[in-house]
Design brief:
It is a multi-pass membrane protein. It is found in: Endomembrane system. Keywords: Membrane, Transmembrane, Transmembrane helix, Transport. GO terms for molecular function: transmembrane transporter activity. The protein has about 400 residues and is an all-alpha fold. The chain has a single domain, classed as MFS general substrate transporter like domains (Growth Hormone, Chain: A, Up-down Bundle), CATH 1.20.1250.20. Helices cover about 80% and strands about 0% of the residues. The chain is built from 16 helices and no strands. Helix 2 packs antiparallel against helix 6 and helix 6 packs across helix 15. The longest helix has about 50 residues. It is globular.
Length: about 400
């Protein structure tokens, strides 16, 4: 029996869960709240700053690169120094570096502050996800993974719209909202606990089985799945504003509402996930979510009106809502306690690397001779092909894999 399944559940549930899902939601605020500001930031710094065409997108997408680089280190620190301590420090730094662009007048300094902001995000996401895996097990863990994703989608959609509204007069205003997480720190200090401090049984388990093996191939599949999935996922928040501007829609409120609707649609996927997981299993759920992403991207690539864009991002968002809990739950269940921070740090790294390279992938496809619409359409076709491969894999492994309810299914 693995360490994970032998440990009793120590978390009371509501308080710890609320703090952790709110902490997890900080990472979605890091990107979605300022994405509608891209046109205004470019308009202010473009005429006066060399390489502004490169620096402005980097100011928005740079945190994802920082997270991808720093998440493995954050996971190592979480295993060595403790999840709670690192989470509290990272939350303070998140508020500090998140707010700073509001008072900076130099685009290069803003980019640097956003990269440091991303390092703090890496620690927050890794620690929150690891603590969820530490505190709950079995079906309780599945429920909290889903709760985490639902909260991220709900809070992300809310702040996308809020960011767009506040940015109507000045792109700097939304950055003040990054000070709000300071209010979480006292609750983190009071409610959260280190597993090694709370449960003597955890210490004994780690000491008795420090070399427990990890199923490497399923773990790599999970990492690749979340990396590729996030490339497809972030086409909407990064590219939809450009498509809308081409249609003549320049209002940051309308742009924010379109992306906020996509995030809100992830709630539908997250709510559907527990039932779909039980009926179809994790592997076929991957096929379903990739098909939904493909349909959404195809519709977005051919959209010619604002309403068509809204419908496309809704379908796409449902697939995205299925993706994160489906892949995250499988990866969590592959990792014993002793390496859980590092393993989930790798997962977080792949998740945000996918976000960062999404516009790069689009740019590479465009360089082959197509336009933005064609690039999105090509990604839709790739998503559909991979979905078909998951169907084949699910059918091939059906006689060898556990039941859908089992935690050890392939990601």
């Amino acid at each position: 029996m693995s360490i994970d399944n032998s440990l009793p559940k120590k978390a009371s549930g509501s308080k710890e869960g609320l703090i952790l899902v709110l902490g997890s939601s900080l990472t979605i605020m890091g990107s979605v709240m300022v994405a509608p500001m891209i046109p205004k930031i470019a308009a202010e710094f473009g005429p006066t700053t060399p390489d502004a065409a490169t620096l402005v997108p980097l100011a928005i997408a740079g945190p994802a690169l920082a997270i991808a680089i720093c998440a493995p280190l954050a996971g190592w620190l979480a295993d060595r120094a403790g999840r709670k301590k690192l989470l509290i420090i990272a939350t303070f730094l998140y508020a500090l570096f998140g707010f700073v662009p509001a008072i900076l007048g130099d685009l290069n300094s803003i980019v640097v502050s956003r990269l440091l902001f991303g390092c703090a995000e890496a620690a927050i996401m890794t620690c929150c996800t690891t603590l969820i895996a530490d505190y709950w097990h079995g079906e309780e863990r599945m429920k909290f993974v889903n709760f985490q994703v639902i909260a991220i989608g709900l809070i992300g959609s809310l702040f996308f719209v809020i960011g767009g509204i506040l940015g109507e007069e000045s792109w700097r205003t939304p950055f003040y909202l990054y000070l709000l997480p300071l209010l979480l720190i006292p609750f983190m200090l009071k409610v959260l606990w280190e597993p090694s401090e709370k449960s003597e049984e955890i210490n004994k388990a780690v000491a008795s089985a420090p070399m427990e093996k990890v199923a490497i191939l399923p773990l790599i599949i999970g990492y690749l799945m979340i990396l590729g999935g996030m490339v497809l996922n972030f086409v909407v928040p990064i590219q939809a504003p450009t498509l809308l501007v081409e249609m003549g829609i320049t209002s940051t409120t309308q742009i924010g509402m379109s992306a906020g609707l996509g995030l809100l649609a992830t709630l539908v996927g997250s709510i559907m996930w527990p039932l779909l997981r039980r009926v179809f299993g994790l592997n076929l759920c991957n096929a379903i979510l990739l098909t939904l992403l493909a349909i959404g991207l195809w519709m977005l690539s051919s959209a010619s009106t604002y309403k068509e864009v809204l419908f496309a991002v809704t379908v796409h968002g449902i697939g995205a809502g299925l993706m994160v809990p489906n892949v995250m739950a499988a990866v969590m269940n592959l990792l014993p306690l002793s390496v859980r921070g590092r393993g989930l740090g790798g997962f977080t790294s792949c998740l945000y690397l996918g976000q960062f390279i999404s516009p790069i992938v689009i740019g590479i496809i465009i360089s082959t001779g197509t336009d933005l619409h064609g690039a999105i359409y090509n990604l839709a076709k790739v998503s559909l092909v991979v979905a078909a491969l998951w169907v084949i894999a699910a059918l091939f492994l059906s006689s060898k894999t556990p039941t859908p309810e089992s935690e050890s299914s392939l990601p």
